[in-house]
Amino acid sequence: MTNHRINYALVGFFVLVTLVTLITTIAVLTGRTGAVSTYYTTYGNVGGIKFGTQVLYEGYPIGQVEAIEPTTFKGSVKFRITLSVTEDWRIPADSIAEISASGLLAAVTINIREGLSAEALAPGSEILPGRPSNIFAALSGVAEQFGDLSENSVKPLLSNLDRQVTAFGKVFENELPAMIDNVNGLTREVADRTPLILANLEDFTERLHDISREVDNGVREIMSARNMSTIDRALANFDKTARDVSLFTGRMNETREQLDTILNRVDGLVAGNEDNINKTVEETRFVVQALSRHVDAISYNLEGTSRNMLEFSRQIRQNPGLLLGGSAPSESGASSPQ
User: Best-predicted range by mean pLDDT among 113-127, 169-183, 220-234, 288-302?
Assistant: First the structure.
């Protein structure tokens, strides 16, 4: 009887140890091994997320999903997820919680990607959601893009292409016989004109050969010794002219420098005698004004002087003796010889 009790006690102890180990293992796997803090995040799609889904921080397990609550935001359904995280675990304010899977067959988890903010989120805060980063979400996004591309681009393109092909088919059906007739007529005309074309081509070839021979002879004549000597002399003269032009340019530069020097001197002279020049201009203006005031009297006196000179020259012509101090002959004396 004692042996049976010992066996029952051992079996009970083994079962108790097994249960404690199982509970401890489950607690370790779920991350619920101590006090936790609660955080929230919101997604539009929670495929693969359920109660007990692991919460990772840069790949390190720190908690699990406690609840998923559907909500309505701006007319669309969103899912608010409650996360239990190890107590006092520091999460920067700009961290992002994204749905991810570490491998093709790995379980879906919520991985918190560490931010750069120096400020930490308080328990009960909202963690910014990120786009899913697992391969199935990526494939789903690509499939949606391909579906949209097929619906909005490929199908209209194929419809347009079908319309264009149908239109071209109708055009070819209506115009192809006439086009074939035109091609046949053109082919017959080309066949009829081929001998003439070949004859013209042969004549053109002969003329081209003659022109080539004449050009060759002309080149040989140009390159003769006499012409080459003429070309050499022309080049020598050109070289001499270039040297003369260069020398003339140098002299022109010297002349320009001399003119610059003269102009600088004149400028200095004018600047140094500016007061005298201004005084001379003022005196000249005064003289001109005086002349303008007396120009009428001067003109009158000049006119009288001109008349006197005219009278004096007339009397000299009549009696040159006036220059020697004589008097003019009387009229009776002048008439007595008659």
Answer: 113-127
At residue 250, φ and ψ (nearest 5 deg) are -65, -45
- Choose the final residue of a domain: 115, 133, 151: 133
> For the segment 82-113, what is each residue's pLDDT rounded down to a tens digit?
999 998 899 999 999 998 887 767 788 899 99
How far is it, in rounded angstroms, from Cα 235 to Cα 273? 56
SS3 146: helix
Could you give the CA distance from residue 232 to residue 332 in angstroms, rounded to a whole number?
99
DSSP 92: B
d(CA 40, CA 91): 12
The pTM for the full model equals 0.37
Cβ-in-10-Å burial (0-12, 13-18, 19+) of 49 comes to middle
* CATH number where 304 lies: 1.10.287
3-state secondary structure of 47: coil
2 assigned to some structural domain: no
Number of C-beta neighbours around residue 42 at 10 A: 17
d(CA 58, CA 282): 99
Distance in angstroms between the alpha carbons of the first and the last residue of the chain = 219
**Helix pair 225-272, 274-293: axis angle to 10 deg:** 80
Taken as a whole, the chain contains a residue count of 338
Instruction: Judge whether 271 lies within some domain.
Output: yes
Residue ranges of the alpha helices (H) in 273-320? Answer: 274-293, 295-318
109, two tokens: 């988890």
With beta carbons less than 8 A apart as the criterion, state whether 64 and 52 touch.
Answer: yes
Domain extent for 242: 229-319
- What are the distances in angstroms from CA 65 to CA 140, 198, 278? 24, 92, 104
Note whether residue 144 is domain-resident. no
Of 101, 96, 103, the C-alpha closest to 121 is: 96
d(CA 4, CA 271): 140
Total domain count for the chain?
Answer: 2
* Domain membership flag for residue 20: no
